[in-house]
Amino acid sequence: MLHREDPAGFIVITQPTHAWIAGQLAQAWGNTCVGHFEPWADVCLGAEQHDIGWLAWEASPTLNGQTGRPHSFLEMPTLLHVAIWSSAARMALALGRYPALLVSLHGTGLYERYGRTYATADEERAVQEWLAGEYTLQRELIASLQADSHYAPYVTQEMIARNRQLVAVWDMLSLALCMGLDTPHTFDAVPAANGTIALTLTPIADNAQHIHVTPWPFREERVTLVCEGRRLPQQYESEERMRQALLAAPWVTTRLVLHPAAD
């Protein structure tokens, strides 16, 4: 779950909704600057469903007793976080092997890039066992895709690495957009037509719903993204009361408009 501070009141946005924004970015992506990606539909689906493992947790989120609000994705206890990701790739496999591969690669990439500080040996053991299982699954999926005449061209080491990085970039862009920008933010190592570039998001006139993107990575001259959240301004001492309040909380539609810097 993401937390978005808002002048009208605190908003929570689910992980699958944030992933849908990543999917919208993927569908709009591609021009002479950043190039294109293949297989297009599978990569878009992988981006859209990269947080599929969170579906069950989002239906009954846990309470952070220190904040009185649902845990954000940044606050998740390690064992709970691993349990959520343990089901993700298998759930995505119902959508197809290539999306499942991207979901698995994204999950392991989170631990490879950022790591975690383990409070107990049980936490570290759970992470290492999960990573080992995911690496085995990834090898199996790649071998299966390589044996498929349709998918074989898209599972070279270079193409998998590029598509994996694109999902990571769309994930980071979506997080920044969903949580709200008040200052410029630059994202490095964005796959481009030639090598990589740095991409900068800048709110326009302190309006977090209109953002300049430099350089421009999309096909169209302007991109509009839409997601829903729920307004949950209060804090709670009881997990059950928080869950009941969340079910009754008013819906909030957030509309984000991306513009080229020259617009």
Characterize the main sheet. 7 strands, mixed
Helical percentage: 40-55%
Global geometry: globular
- Radius of gyration, taken over Cα atoms and rounded to an integer in Å: 19 Å
Mean pLDDT: 96
Q: Note the total helix count.
A: 9
Instruction: Report the uncertain regions.
Output: none
Roughly how many Å apart are the termini? 33 Å
Structural class: alpha+beta
Count of distinct strands: 9
Q: Taking strands numbered 1, 2, ... along the chain, how are they ordered across the largest sheet?
A: 1-2-8-9-7-6-5
Order of helices and strands, N to C? Answer: EEHHHEEHHHHHEEEEHE
Count of individual domains: 1
Explain the overall architecture.
α2 crosses α6. The model has no long low-confidence stretch (mean pLDDT 96). The protein is built from nine helices and nine strands. A seven-stranded mixed sheet has the order 1-2-8-9-7-6-5. Strands 3-4 form a two-stranded antiparallel sheet. It is α+β, with helices and mostly antiparallel strands. The protein has one domain. 46% of the residues lie in helices and 20% in strands.
